[in-house]
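Just curious. Protein, please.
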Amino acid sequence: MVHVRAKDAVGQYGERVAVRRLTEAGMTVLDRNWRCRSGEIDVVARDGDCLVVCEVKTRRSVSAGTALEAVTPQKLARLRRLTGEWLAAHPGVNPPRVRLDVVAVTVPERGPATVQHVAGVS
């Protein structure tokens, strides 16, 4: 039997919600949870001719700050480096534009999750 920590389950749920939001917005998901030695990219998608690298942050409440506040300048710098590594690992992908997005998901104890998609955060 595989045991999933509650925090991990919330994060996985948030990523599923985020992917649904991105696809409903017309994007095509190219990769999920891509990992390399330097870290992980939550979602890589295509929005027209633009490659979108998306950080997903999920919170149960805003008591420790919002999900968007958790995306620091250091996190964005790391995401930019990871984007370069993803592109190097996928030589057939040569987008004319690359954009970093954040999808913030808040999962309350009751009721539906709230989702905020911020395009072009860096």
About this structure: The chain is about 30% helix and 35% strand.
